[in-house]
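2024-03-11 09:14:02 DEBUG pipeline.ingest accepted 1 chain
2024-03-11 09:14:02 DEBUG pipeline.ingest length=192
2024-03-11 09:14:03 DEBUG pipeline.predict start
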Amino acid sequence: MTIRKDSDKIFLDGRNLSELDRFVCNVLDIISKYTSYVIVSGYVAILFGRSRSTEDVDILIPFCDISLFIKLHDELLENNYEFLNAEDSFGLFSILTSGSGVRLCEKDSFIPNIEIKFVKNESDDYSFQNRIPLIIADKNFYISPLEIQIAYKIWLGSEKDIEDALFLKEVTSDFIDEKLLQEFYSSFKVKL
C-alpha cells in the first residue's frame, strides 16, 4: 500500500477494502443521502493499515431535525440494519440530542457496529468542518484531520489509543502539518 496526498485528498493506493470497510461503505452510502459525516477515532488508524480489530466505528454528523433523522432511520432499517439501542426513531433522536451516540449494525449482528453522534463540541466541529477525503479503491471516506486525530488519541491515553496515534504519525509523516500538530498537543495538554 502506498499513501499519497494530492491537494486536499489522501489516497491509499494498493489497499483493498476489507469486510469491515465494505460494511462502513454501505452504511455511509445511506447516511450520505441525508447528511454529511466525518469518521473519527480508532477506525481512522485501521483505514491507514493499522492491524488491529475494532468493534465499532465512530461517526459524527451535524445536528439535523427529527424529520430528516426519521427518513435516515427508516432507510437504514429497510436495508437490513438495526439500531442496538432499544428505542424507536424518536427515542434514538432523543439519545442523539442528549449528546450520546446510537449504535447501528447489520440485522442480527452486534459486531461490527457504527456509533453515530451529533457534532457537540469545538473539537468535533473542527473535525467535521475540516474533514479530509480519503480514497481507497475508488471509495470516499471522510476522516478527521490527522493532526487533531493524533493529539486526541494521545489525550485519551489508553495503550491502544497511543499506539493508534503513533502509527498514524509515522505513516503520514510526509504530509502532517507539524506546527498544527503541536497546536493540538498544546490544546489537549498532551506531550509526545
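2024-03-11 09:14:41 DEBUG pipeline.report The chain is about 45% helix and 20% strand.
2024-03-11 09:14:41 DEBUG pipeline.predict end
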